[in-house]
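Minutes, project check-in

Agenda point 3 was the complex the collaborators sent over. CS summarized: two entities, 254 residues total, and the question is how they sit relative to each other. Sequences were read into the notes so everyone works from the same version.
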Amino acid sequence: MSQSYDRGLIEDFGRWTEFSAGMWAWIFHKFTGWVLVGYLFTHIAVLSTAIQGSEAYNSTIQGLEGLLLVRFLEVGLLAVAVFHILNGVRLLFVDLGLGLESQDRTFYASLVVTGVVVVASIPTFLMGKLA
Amino acid sequence: MSERYSSFEPKGTRWLLQRLTAAFLVIVLAFHFMQLHFVNHAADVTFAGTSARMSQPGYFLAMVGFGLTATFHGVNGVYNGLVNQGLDGIGRRAVKYGLVVAGLLLAAQILRLAFTMAGGSIS
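CS then shared the predicted structure for the full assembly.
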């Protein structure tokens, strides 16, 4: 029987300077997970305007997409989703016993790739608003 | 120090399902983002376009599978996160059944929405 990993209390924010890369990865994965599950419920609620008819659906989507704030929130959502995907793949490998010894580097790589994907996607997400 | 870093019980059903759904979601979430932000821009989405895509059996099944899998993964992830933070006793049971109800309601709404978007028939 394996033991649990004693990560200490994350509620003790005074410890944050002592957090390792693995701890930050754990915190970021939980945070992005909460954001994504919240977004899932919101997304389905917005799309459910389709049940009222095509007019309601079209005006809701186009009304939201017409807001610059929504475009920036979508970029934020992309960042959250990409990090959660990359870190999730990292977790899958760690769970399979692969890459535990290089988990710091793979966490930093996840952050860098997330940053690159998000920056490269900004023009597409803001198209029609700023570009 | 341990040899195991996962917060799930070793080889538990929830652990396995969370990993299996994750593997599926990695692919389909990336596809969803590509399809609705890059191939088709979100600002250009209309009911007609959505309906046309959802009328394709493969796309319909992928999106329904995506929605239902994401619901399970999200709800199971929230439950695990809270248990991991020390949730126990009556609170744990209340959260468990609350999340089950929320997940089932969302799943039902996803199915209802998917059939509406597909125009009630898959051609």
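Noted in discussion: The CA atoms of residues 26 and 87 of chain A lie 9 Å apart.
Follow-up: revisit at the next meeting once the mutant set is ready.
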